[in-house]
Amino acid sequence: MRISELSAASAVSIPTIKYYIRQGLLAPGTRRSKTQADYGPQHLRRLRLIRTLVDVGDVSLDRIASVLAVIDDSAVDTHDMLSVVHTAIAPAPPGNDPGLDDAIDEVATYVERVGWNIKPATPALRQLAQALVTLRRLGWEVTTDVFEPYMHAADSVAEWELERLPHSDRRADVAEGVVIGTIVFETVLTAWRHLAQQHHSSRRNPSTDTANQSNSTIR
Amino acid sequence: MRISELSAASAVSIPTIKYYIRQGLLAPGTRRSKTQADYGPQHLRRLRLIRTLVDVGDVSLDRIASVLAVIDDSAVDTHDMLSVVHTAIAPAPPGNDPGLDDAIDEVATYVERVGWNIKPATPALRQLAQALVTLRRLGWEVTTDVFEPYMHAADSVAEWELERLPHSDRRADVAEGVVIGTIVFETVLTAWRHLAQQHHSSRRNPSTDTANQSNSTIR
Predict the structure, then answer these.
(1) Which residues have a Cβ under 8 Å from the Cβ of A168 and sit 6 or more positions away?
(2) Tell me, what's the ipTM?
(3) How far, in Å, CA of A198 to CA of B87, rounded?
């Protein structure tokens, strides 16, 4: 298809498509003449993946480049791919708060006690440590015990997610599954947490019943 | 205390403190002379709350103003406060994808079936609908059934969170608890999901065992 058709099918403008090609995020089309190139379904697929990373994951183009490089590198297995995607969508916080190093040790000890096999450089470990530091600065007396309900909830979700990973001979399918699943379902999980908080809050405060609104359209 | 002491205690620069005062996010200090004002512990507390919203929640100053207004408005109860905080940290996606309206109806039907009491305008409903639309555009055949594990995980986390809300006569304490808890523990939940994905992925691919790294420090 022509670039105009690719643009229509992907809902990405022609200048943006050309920009992605210049940045190396998208392969150039096959030249048909001096002014025309031909694009295939793999271009459309890659564009949709980039837009998901931008629109849903709020990932910068720099980080998208590193995610795409990993998808295209057949030497990288699913497990390592997960690390790259996690780092791209949730980089380690840059903070150098006093107490952060101690908090990182606390988190490491907790993860060890739980018995999980986690790479030491995983940004999520630093994020959890930063959360402890932030809460304590705000006057909350918290220990790593506060993590328990989150750890259990995450455990059940991740077990289900890994079982559902697409089984395919095309490695690119699996890679895309990991990227999309990680990013889109992060939004799904946090959205459900908000709904669940509303639900439990309204159970605790029956006076704030919104049932009278239940006949209006949810829009 | 003087503004220099407030700055040292909060780790927020003096120009930034002055900027927050001009923007109405922070009350002015009590004038002591033409060039000096006095600040109290309530200023320090408010500054820490603003920094948490900025640093952890990545919330814009506009949205912070609306969160603070709700904290300070004694007519707003905990339940309504939750809605304001949720909207501030996760605004409804602006998308107008074809199929979004139908997906919103699907999500509404699912929430009704689950029996949760949710305000129709809640952004999370639109986020879930947008996730369905995005996945389908990427070729995933999904129905609202895909939400089930996330709904259950969120339910158990939120039940525990609402039970743990600070009980205090000072309404501002409860309000701050809602704001901080919602934002900081969102990071905690998504960080644990990343760890849990790594854990289950390494169980499925034992060859990628990282146990040999377990003696190095997690930093």
Answers:
(1) A174
(2) 0.85
(3) 12
